[in-house]
């Protein structure tokens, strides 16, 4: 893994050629000072979604000419509009990064209309070219690719062939991660199955712990999750002596014995593209989406829970994803027996964004 | 209640009973705020941060510019309404903490009744009042039910209203994630957006929505109701002594349910503005904790509907400057919560000073009840 990471950092940040001029830390001093306002929905040290963004901001803070101002625990209400306006009016922010899903509509859209000279970018694929302001935009990474890698590593690190998945809500992005773990595991271990429990909430630590315990009691010996803060799930797995795969940020420190790897965003690739464009006085791209092929994801460094074969297969899977190898290889059935994917899908096929099924091999129900 | 008429002042220094009470009601809370600020300064110094910077940032973020003032007012709008929702039942002796549920359910109802009206092309000037009224009606029923349980079934209203809040949120989630979900809201389940034409706009010349005006109006109306009408007198008398009120033949059950219904209507109206002025649809964002902050607001305002307004504005200012403090001082979000907590505790302690500070007392035997 380390070798891949260093090789990748040698490649510089390269997102579909947009960042051809990006030099990670040696960025030329900005012409106009960039004041980047970042808004987070939770604490910056949540071992999850917010931490993933905050870590990327820390990298940007070292870029000359860029000032990063941050506000955490801003709810998805009018409060976020007020916070963004406050950053603009009182701190002179000229780029606002709104990092939580529910910030976009109406808050980012309306604030962008109100401040046409400030750029707004939001971390979910919601920007609509036809209806939304031109100074707004979206950025997003298809984390399911990294969950696929989790699945590959887990598939060769499990002995019971049962992987447990603690999921928040049965919405497309979560379902895609669950299905990708299954497909990753099955690609190396045809016996592997995934058992899922939905908690119904993005952050409900008590229920997450209960779900993790229930999955372990049911015989799962690898636990992974898609909830806002994976801390409780990973810690529960470690305490119970089973292995775990992470989500959003690195939870490796929480599970020194059982951690296999984790699906992580690499937001700094995108943030550098923004900082570079601003520094050069160029327009910011309105829509950036990516995955492994354009260096927007990574898997956490392998932990003690990963078997040597698992590490090898996962590294190969990463190379495959970079080359565009499809995850959804048809025909695939859902777990009720209906064919849901006829033929192989590109990893960025728009139809996958509307996923509303669990594949055959996943035990669980979305209703 | 009626004050004993004071004899002609023998010394120019003595306070009349009425003015003494007003002075006391001002001096004690302000003293408590100053004491809280001092205590919090100690906390800041212990963290190596400058209290002067902190309080000047509160001023900048809360009131320092026209933007800041609007930011503060925008944030205080729902707090006035939820503050009233706690204050009114408190006057009749009830501790109702369920405004959150009434707000959520009211907002959800407003969004739900809007769906057929908006699709049917009914004009906004008809649709919006229908939305507001149904939000208030549902809120009133919800909290009114807690009052009914209290009076007729002897169920503790604090517990029942809190539990009803959870049920309210669950009901909204059930419909928003199921029957009434807008198919376009794939990853954040929401009801159908009501559309820009049906949104409640801002008050002229500001970016503050009309919920603020509604809050101010209701605060005045409810103050008059509670202090200048027989209903209010009867309610306060019930709050003072239920058995005495019953012995007097007051309709205690009606008063309890009515006060709760008024409270629920206030919270429901706050929910309506959240939907019609802020979100444009109902979703999990309605569960923002305004109902619970309203409890603090009402406590600080000592359950006086008029005082709810400045206290809500103070909380709005704290919230508005909280972000600035995070950004400029690098302090965590919880900093402002620590200040709020200190204020709350000091204010509770300060309650014990009423009637005990000699120079604030009238020289007559005017009693305070």
Automatic annotation (TrEMBL), chain A:
CDD domains: PBP1_BMP-like. Keywords: Signal. Residues 1-30 form the signal peptide. The keyword Signal applies. InterPro entries: ABC-Purine-Binding, PnrA-like, TAT_signal. Residues 36-283 form the ABC transporter substrate-binding protein PnrA-like domain. It holds the Pfam family Bmp. PROSITE patterns: TAT. GO terms for cellular component: plasma membrane. It comes from the Bacteria. PANTHER family: ABC TRANSPORTER SUBSTRATE-BINDING PROTEIN. This is BMP family ABC transporter substrate-binding protein. The lineage of its organism: Bacteria, Pseudomonadati, Pseudomonadota, Alphaproteobacteria, Hyphomicrobiales.
Automatic annotation (TrEMBL), chain B:
Its main location: membrane. The chain crosses the membrane at residues 26-47, 54-70, 76-94, 101-122, 128-149, 161-180, 208-226, 247-270, 282-301, 308-325, 337-354. It is found in: Cell membrane. GO terms for cellular component: plasma membrane. InterPro entries: ABC_transp_permease. It comes from the Bacteria. It is a multi-pass membrane protein. Keywords: Cell membrane, Membrane, Transmembrane, Transmembrane helix. One of its GO terms (molecular function) is transmembrane transporter activity. This is ABC transporter permease. The lineage of its organism: Bacteria, Pseudomonadati, Pseudomonadota, Alphaproteobacteria, Hyphomicrobiales.
């Amino acid at each position: 893994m380390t070798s891949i990471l260093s090789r990748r950092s040698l490649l510089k940040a390269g997102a579909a050629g947009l960042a051809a001029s990006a030099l990670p830390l040696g960025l030329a001093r900005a012409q106009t000072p960039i004041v980047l306002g970042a808004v987070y929905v939770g604490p910056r040290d949540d071992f999850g979604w917010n931490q993933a963004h905050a870590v990327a901001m820390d990298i940007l803070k070292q870029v000359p000419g860029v000032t990063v101002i941050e506000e955490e625990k801003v709810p998805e209400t009018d409060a976020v509009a007020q916070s963004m306006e406050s950053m603009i009016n009182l701190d002179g922010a000229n780029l606002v990064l709104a990092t939580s899903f529910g910030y976009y509509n109406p808050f980012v859209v309306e604030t962008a209309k109100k401040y046409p000279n400030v750029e707004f970018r939001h971390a979910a694929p919601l920007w609509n070219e036809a209806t939304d302001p031109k100074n707004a935009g979206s950025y997003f990474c298809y984390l399911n690719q990294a969950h696929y890698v989790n699945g590959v590593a887990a598939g060769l690190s499990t002995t019971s062939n049962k992987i447990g998945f603690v999921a928040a809500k049965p919405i497309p992005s979560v379902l895609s991660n669950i299905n990708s773990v299954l497909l990753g595991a099955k690609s190396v271990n045809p016996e592997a199955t995934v058992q899922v429990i939905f908690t119904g909430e993005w952050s409900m630590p008590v229920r997450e712990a209960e779900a993790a315990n229930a999955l372990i009691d049911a015989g799962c010996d690898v636990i992974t999750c898609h909830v806002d803060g994976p801390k409780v799930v990973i810690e529960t797995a470690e305490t119970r002596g089973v292995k775990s795969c992470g989500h959003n940020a690195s939870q490796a420190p929480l599970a020194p014995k059982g951690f296999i790897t984790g699906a992580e965003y690499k937001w700094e690739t995108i943030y550098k593209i923004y900082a570079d464009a601003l520094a050069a006085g160029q327009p910011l791209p309105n829509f950036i989406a990516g995955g492994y092929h354009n260096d927007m994801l990574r898997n956490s460094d392998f932990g003690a829970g990963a078997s040597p074969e698992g590490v090898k297969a996962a590294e190969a899977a990463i190379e495959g994803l970079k080359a565009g190898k499809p995850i959804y290889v048809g025909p695939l059935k859902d777990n009720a027996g209906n064919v849901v994917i006829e033929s192989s899908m590109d990893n960025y096929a728009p139809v996958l964004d509307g996923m509303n099924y669990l594949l055959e091999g996943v035990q669980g129900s979305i209703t | 209640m009626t004050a004993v008429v004071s004899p002609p002042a023998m010394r120019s220094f003595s306070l009349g009973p009425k003015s003494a009470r007003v002075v006391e009601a001002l001096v004690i809370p302000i003293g408590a705020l100053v004491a809280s600020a001092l205590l919090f300064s100690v906390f800041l110094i212990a963290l190596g941060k400058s209290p002067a910077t902190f309080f000047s940032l509160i001023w900048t973020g809360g009131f320092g510019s026209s933007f800041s003032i609007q930011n503060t007012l925008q944030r205080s709008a729902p707090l006035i309404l939820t503050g009233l929702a706690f204050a009114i039942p408190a006057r009749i002796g009830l501790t109702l903490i369920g405004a959150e549920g009434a707000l959520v359910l009211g907002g959800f109802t407003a969004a739900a009744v809007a769906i057929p009206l908006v699709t049917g092309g009914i004009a906004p000037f008809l649709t919006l009042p229908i939305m507001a009224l149904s939000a208030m009606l549902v809120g009133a029923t919800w909290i009114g039910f807690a009052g009914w349980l209290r009076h007729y079934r002897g169920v503790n209203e604090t517990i029942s209203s809190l539990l009803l809040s959870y049920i309210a949120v669950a009901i909204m989630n059930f419909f928003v994630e199921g029957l009434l979900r807008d198919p376009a809201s794939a990853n954040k389940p929401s009801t159908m957006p009501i559309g820009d034409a049906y949104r409640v706009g801002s008050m002229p010349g500001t970016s503050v929505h009309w919920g603020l005006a509604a809050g101010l109006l209701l605060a005045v109306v409810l103050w008059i109701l509670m202090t200048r009408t027989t209903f209010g007198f009867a309610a306060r008398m019930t709050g003072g002594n239920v058995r005495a009120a019953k012995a007097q033949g007051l309709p205690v059950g009606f008063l309890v349910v009515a006060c709760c219904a008024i409270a629920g209507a206030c919270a429901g109206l706050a929910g309506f503005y959240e939907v019609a002025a802020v979100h444009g649809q109902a979703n999990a964002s309605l569960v923002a904790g305004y109902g619970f902050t309203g409890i603090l607001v009402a406590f600080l305002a000592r359950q006086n509907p008029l005082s709810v307004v400045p206290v809500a504005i103070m909380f709005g200012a704290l919230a508005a400057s909280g972000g600035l403090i995070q950004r400029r001082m690098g302090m965590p979000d919880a900093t402002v919560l620590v200040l709020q907590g200190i204020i709350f505790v000091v204010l509770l302690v300060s309650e014990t000073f009423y009637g005990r500070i000699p120079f604030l007392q009238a020289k007559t035997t005017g009693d305070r009840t």
